[in-house]
């Protein structure tokens, strides 16, 4: 290699390399998305559909890039001094998800109260819970039910998200991230949620009995400060 | 509006310029930080759209300079950094808004328009004969009262606030439901149908229109979008 035409810096590793790649990818993707959006207005009728499909697929790629970013962010989270009360976040989320579940003819209900706090930003806590509860909702057939139960226990707080037929016996059904019913994207979302809760000192168990009876149990110890602040 | 785009990616800045000009804004482009800072200081803009990662002087330095000389000039940051910490840093440095790449042009355009004025939020929104009272939480069309659920009310308010603008499903679900958009959900389409039944059925003209391949638009003209 001839000297003078390149600058060298310390090579990046692992998550840093991925982060840089995702950063670089976002620039052309923005151009592509904006270009396709503007083209929709200008395209003749017979090509409109194909531009719309191209835009939709671009948005799917963008969704994956955003998921990868979230995963990296969860992996690289630095200690912070946040404290978010769980119940208001979960209550607001369940209300928002209820209207979405209702479209699929699935009922979502919240039971119980808790005073638990987690050392995680409210937005990230909401996102992690959204990924988990949405997975359970989407596994339900029309007429299904999803129950989110908050329970105070001597060791801390338990959050159970269970579908209609889920008996929630962790000793029988607890697994790592479910591999059979979830799509790849769902599994990435669940991995992000796992990481967020793990960083916050909580533990997450996925429960899967069959395709529709899935759910999860989140255990938040009385002192979340024992976990790595997030 | 007169808008300055400070963005070093020539292809992207040209797409944004073209799109904003099609919406009747006057648009200038600067491709590096020093040039952008000079133009923003010397000329009179209603909005600066500022990329953070610029050659020469970086976007954050440009923003800090602008805040010292033009405290009231609205600045919208474009960045590929999505972490909450980055957002907080930008807003702390004086940015008015923050858009993460890869953003939608429609989102940029909608947010740019919101920066046009600092008028207080109106308590009553009107689109033709449709009236939404945000304080009393009442909706009427042609004087006839319309009952809406909480989500229907929020959706209608968002459509009316952006009347005349195309809104993507992602924008709607993020603003009305405060959820990350999942392209497989049809919740927006379903709720738009609920709204149409209540707001448009039996009235003329129809105000809620499908924008094929994009999403929806409330059109005050009543014309198909």
Structural overview:
The complex is a heterodimer of chains A (230) and B (225). With 230 residues, chain A is an alpha+beta fold. Chain A has six helices and eight strands, in the order H-H-E-H-E-E-H-E-E-H-E-H-E-E. In chain A, the strands form two sheets. Chain A has a six-stranded mixed β-sheet with strand order 2-4-5-8-7-6. In chain A, helix 1 (14-42) runs antiparallel to helix 2 (45-75) and helix 2 packs parallel to helix 6 (184-199). Chain A is globular and about 60 Å long. The N and C termini of chain A lie far apart (44 Å). Residues 166-181 and 225-230 of chain A have low confidence and may be disordered. The two termini of chain B are 23 Å apart. Chain B folds into two domains: 2-114, Response regulator (Rossmann fold, 3-Layer(aba) Sandwich); 124-218, Winged helix-like DNA-binding domain superfamily/Winged helix DNA-binding domain (Arc Repressor Mutant, subunit A, Orthogonal Bundle), CATH 1.10.10.10. In chain B, strand 7 (130-133) and strand 8 form a beta hairpin. Chain B is α/β, with parallel strands linked by helices and 225 residues long. Chain B contains eight helices and twelve strands. The longest helix of chain B has 13 residues, at 10-22.
